[in-house]
Design goal:
The protein is of the alpha/beta class. The protein is built from twelve helices and seven strands. The protein has a five-stranded mixed beta sheet with strand order 3-2-1-4-5, sandwiched between helices. Strands 6-7 form a two-stranded antiparallel ribbon.
Length: 322
């Protein structure tokens, strides 16, 4: 470059023309894609940074390629500049998944609540890290229908009358009262003449004055008269009649699992059968809606020999360990 400064302009231009002609010959015979080393790219990028006008003299490479090389070098430089130099340790994948599952299952929980649960599980992690891995929501959290129904089921009871024929073709009436909290049978009543006053007395004996449910669901049977409605109001129960043809599903279970398999002799016999079934239903029968548990929760027996005990004369059995 120093020698070229002392040469005449005509000699330099002649040399440039010669070099350009040689480049044209090489372009015609060389492959379409040329390979460049890191030094070649560095030289081209340096010349472009110092003299941007050299883009007009480029022949074996496009100007856009030079710009792309320059941007790639810029990214590599700042990646090296921003490399991690210690700091917080990375959170394991299992803990990140657990934080995500907690935030999905508990939409009302914030980062402090999830962080507290993790501390109780022996997981030492910062609260800011918990907030980082929680699920982001666009709208305010809302409970699901399953949670909504469970929150209100404890204060709801249902009642219904059903007819049972006896061996002498006499009709008896059974009164069923069930709590919706854990689908527990609260009361069975039997009579041959279901009057409004009798039904009101059954409600009082079943629920009492202090443990009465907030809402009572029933059908629109004519047996529920004015005496019954006044008794409900005095106890503090809100009466909620259902739409026509909306029977309680539990009555079907009572018929299929008990009454369809026996012959009722009389009112005393029917009361005994219903009380035995209530004891079996509340304490032994598992329910799908209760996660295969009974209304009165059964403990899990893991040790001992399995013992089978018959219920309702052998219609059902209960298995336990001793």
């Amino acid at each position: 470059m120093v020698v070229d400064l002392m040469r005449s302009r005509a000699a330099l231009e002649a040399e440039i023309w010669t070099l350009r002609q040689q480049i044209n010959v090489l372009r015609r015979t060389a492959p379409k894609k040329l390979s460049f080393s890191a030094i070649d790219r560095l030289v081209f990028v340096g010349l472009y940074r110092l003299f941007p006008n050299v883009r007009d003299a480029l022949a074996i490479v496009k100007p856009g390629t030079i710009v792309r090389w320059h941007r790639a070098g810029f990214r590599s430089y700042w990646r090296w500049k921003s490399r991690p130099r210690g700091g917080r340790p990375t959170v394991p994948l299992e803990i990140r998944r657990l934080i995500r599952e907690m935030s999905i299952a508990n939409p009302l929980w914030g980062a402090p609540r999830v962080h507290g649960e993790l501390l109780k599980l022996g997981i030492n992690i910062g609260q800011t890290s918990v907030a980082k891995y929680m699920v982001r929501r666009r709208h305010p959290p809302s409970q699901g229908w399953k949670t909504f129904i469970r929150n209100h089921a404890d204060g709801i009871a249902a009642m219904d009358l059903f007819v049972v024929p006896t061996i002498s073709f006499r009709l008896l009436y059974g009164l069923l009262i069930m709590g919706h909290g854990r689908r527990q049978i609260l009361w069975f009543g039997v009579t041959s003449h279901p009057t409004a006053e009798w039904i009101a007395n059954q409600i009082t004996e079943a629920c009492g004055w202090e443990q009465a449910p907030r809402y009572l669901i029933r059908d629109r049977d004519g047996a529920y008269g004015e005496v019954f409605i006044q008794r409900m109001r005095s106890i503090g129960i809100r009466d909620r009649p259902t739409s026509p043809r909306s029977p309680e599903r539990l009555i079907g279970s009572i018929r299929r699992e008990c009454l369809d398999h026996v012959v009722v002799f009389g009112e005393r016999h029917l009361r005994h059968l219903l009380l035995c079934y209530m004891k079996y239903y509340n304490g032994s029968r598992t329910h799908l809606s209760l996660e295969k548990d009974a209304p009165v929760s059964r403990a899990v027996d893991r040790a001992g020999h399995i013992l089978c005990r018959s219920i309702l004369g052998g219609l059902h059995h209960r298995y336990s360990r001793i």
